[in-house]
Structure formats: structure tokens, C-alpha cells
Amino acid sequence: MSLSDMTRRQTLALLGTTPLMASTGNGLAQTTSDAEPLKDIAAKAGLTFGCAVSHDLASDADFRALVLRETQMLAAENAMKFGSLRPDATSFSFDTADALVKFCEQNGKSVRGHTLIWNDWPPTWLKQSAARDFPGIMDRHIETVMGRYAGRITSWDVVNEPFHWKDGGALRPGPWALAMGEDYIFRAFATAAVADPKAKLVLNEAWTERSDALGLGTRRALLLLIDRMRDKGLRIDAIGLQAHLMPDQPYDDAGFVAFLHEIEQRGLEIYLTEFDIDERSFQGNFAERDRQVADRAYKFLTAALSVKAVKLLMTWGLSDRYTWWREPSLMQKFGLKRLARPLPFDDTLRAKPLRDAMARTMRERKA
Ligand code: G3I
Asked: Are 57 and 279 in contact (CB under 8 A)?
């Protein structure tokens, strides 16, 4: 059963007991005494604030109004991924990505490109391609996609998640790594630098917010990779750290801030690209869970924003109404019995304590 197949009753059962609040019709449920949009608070703190969006943007007018009010930059949650743009080896499918870029241009928003090369989510035809064909497939993809949007995309995740999800030191397995080894990363950046000289080139990675073996290993491997790329004279402008926070994993502010300083010392910007909070380990009613989420966010963001090189904060979605944590396959995989509440606005588009925590930490930043 998909979520869309669920009856209202089933959905409410998953949500808890609180009935959904009726929409105001203008998308802006009166939710907070804080009338200043996050994007404006962010700008005063020397940051850009944005979020990832999906089909929700076109299909939900209330949500669209919220996104327009709160954010300055959008990224496609899936529409610019290789698997979305490339139905087969010879063609490109740009309709959804084009629509997002046009929407942003018409509404004065900037766009982040996510993502050109990623070992996850490859189409079957790519997995079946011969190793010798990969460099050519990569060049054509990057040149065509970046060329199409040249000058219109502020930053591109050229490579997403280079390292393994179990062992932060090894390359993440997948067709690109299998066919080209680490060279896939170098070639992607070299090609991207030419395809759109104005776009900021970003290496985007997960896990580094954790201080367990995976997080620490990923931090080490990432810094070494940056150094190898610089030794080769490759342009890299920023490191994207996804910041899908997992509060049940070990974390320490000082270690994370020291890692951010290591990136900063290499002359790179830092983007927090996919911020949300996995609140599976939090107990209690909505109010209690939401407070714990807000506390965790405040602590993390206060530490991260103390580093001047951090220039961007994006949430992966904006409202709990649309979050990857609620995708049926994922809920099944993780045995989730309740709907996740990882984002700053709730199902009714009301601001949550998380939104207030984000606003507070940005206001407190010494820009
Ligand atoms: O579009 C199909 C639909 O036709 C089909 O009926 C349905 C069946 O499950 O699947 C739909 O595709 C799903 C797609 O999202 C669009 O909703 C895929 O199953 C699902 O795997 C895919 O998940 C996305 C995932 O990346 C893989 O690309 C998530 O929405 C997206 O939030 C997630 O984003 C990633 C970042 O790119 C990288 N960092 C981690 C982050 C969260 O996992």
C-alpha cells in the first residue's frame, strides 16, 4: 500500500492522534509569531537558505506558497539525477528539470543542481554498459546537462557521496566506481569545470556529522580526497555536507567544528545541503518529539554556523507533508510504524519548534 492509497483514518493513525488542521487556503497556516522568512534571516547571517522540492511543488499550491515565502534557493530532490534525466543511453528527458529551473527564474529563486554523478540510483542501461564506455557516457552527460543550464545553476553537486556507507574510507560501490575507480571523481570535476565555468563545483557527502567510526572515517577520507584533487589542479569550490542528522548516533560539536575548519583552511566553502532530523529515537507526543528535534538542531547548527566558510543551509524538503522519510519503501526498510517529522514545518504547514530553532541560531550567528 502506498501512502497515497491510505485512507484518512489510516494516515491519522500513523501520524498519531492529532487531526490534520484545515488548510488556510493561502498556504500560510498562522503558525508562528515570527513573520520574518527564513531566507531573510539567513541572508542577514551571511547564508543562503533553501530546500529540496519534488512534484509537491507543482501539485500543492499551499506548499508552493510556503516554499516561495521561506526559501531563496531550490534543488530538485530527484529530477536532476542521472536516472531521471537519462531514460536510455542516447536520450535526455529534461521536462521536469526544465520546469523547476523556469519556476525558479520566474520567482527570483536560485537553483542548486543535484547531482551529476552518483553511484546510487543508476538506470539499468548504465549498469549494463561496458566499462570502456563510461568515460564517454560521463563526458556527454556532464557537458549536455551543465551546458543546457550554463549560467543558470548556482552550484552543482558534481559527485555525490563518494565514500562507502559502511566503511567511510572506501569508495562507494556502483557503476562509476566499478568502471573507472577513483578516476571517475577526477574526470567528473575536470569535465564540469569546462562545461559551466560559472557554476560552483561541489563534492557532496553524507555521514560526516557523526563521530562514530563511519563518520570519522568519512571525514578523513574526504579531506585526503580534496588534497588529491587539489594536487591534480582540479577546481573544486565547495564541500556539501548533507546533514541528515541521526541523533541516536554519536556526535560531538568540537570534532565536527574542527573538521569544518579543515575544509575552510583548504579555501573551500561549506554547504549544509540536505538538513533534516531522523527522530526515530525520540519518544513522546508530537510536542515532546518536536522539542527534542529543535534542541538537537539548535546545538548542531550553532556549532556549524560558528564556522565562517558555511554559506548555505538547505533542508531536504520543507514540510513533514513531503519527506523522503515517509516513502513507503523506506518506511518498510526501517520498520517505521509512525510517520517521520524531520522538517521545520508540519503536515498542516505550521511552523514547528525546529523552524524557530533554525531562525534563532541564524540570528545569533556573528556574520
Ligand atoms: O518515481 C517512482 C514511481 O514511479 C514508483 O511508483 C515508486 C515506487 O516506489 O518509486 C518512485 O521513485 C522513487 C523516487 O524517489 C521518486 O519518489 C524511488 O523509489 C525512490 O528510491 C527515490 O528515492 C529518492 C532517493 O534519493 C534515491 O534517489 C528520494 O526521494 C530522495 O529524497 C533521496 O535523496 C537522497 C539524495 O539524493 C542524496 N542524499 C541522501 C538523500 C536521502 O536518501
From this structure: no
